[in-house]
């Protein structure tokens, strides 16, 4: 008889999406799908986008157009925007935010 592997519960747990809360009433689900990973790679290699364009695209792809609009309306500093990107990076990699912050030594914003 062939072996059978039931991974339904493991897939369900692995497919849960993390959330990022950036302000009162501003909680967004992070799209951590494989397709998003492919989009992120394309964004990082897109030479037609400047760094700010890349930040906006990353937010749009991972959090959605509504989140990008709301975040841009908050008129955040560059450092605060970078902190959002770090949180997104942590969510995509299943890491703790503190781990990701260590890879951004120039940013002095901490939790």
SSE blueprint and pairings:
Elements: H1 8-14, E1 19-23, E2 26-29, H2 34-45, H3 51-63, H4 65-73, H5 78-93, H6 97-101
Antiparallel strand pairs: 1-2
Question: What features would you describe in this structure?
Answer:
The protein has 111 residues and is mainly α. It has one domain. Helix content is 56%, strand content 8%. The chain has helices at residues 8-14, 34-45, 51-63, 65-73, 78-93, 97-101, and strands at residues 19-23, 26-29. The chain has a two-stranded antiparallel sheet. The chain is globular, with a radius of gyration of 16 Å. The model has no long low-confidence stretch (mean pLDDT 91).
User: Which series of helices and strands comes N to C?
Assistant: HEEHHHHH
Oligomer: single chain
Q: So how many helices?
A: 6
- Our count of domains comes out at 1
**CA-to-CA gap between the ends?**
54 Å
Strand content: 5-15%
Q: Within the largest sheet, what's the order of strands?
A: 1-2
Helical amount = 55-70%
């Amino acid at each position: 008889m062939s072996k059978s592997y039931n991974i339904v519960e493991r897939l369900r747990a692995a497919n849960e999406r993390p959330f990022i809360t950036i302000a009162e009433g501003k909680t967004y689900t992070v799209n951590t799908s494989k397709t998003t990973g492919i989009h992120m790679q394309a964004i990082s290699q897109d030479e037609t986008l400047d760094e700010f364009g890349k930040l906006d695209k990353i937010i749009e792809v991972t959090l959605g157009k509504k989140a990008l609009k709301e975040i841009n309306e908050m008129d955040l500093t560059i450092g605060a925007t970078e902190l959002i990107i770090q949180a997104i990076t942590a969510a995509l990699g299943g890491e703790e935010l503190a781990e990701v912050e260590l890879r951004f030594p120039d940013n002095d914003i901490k939790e």
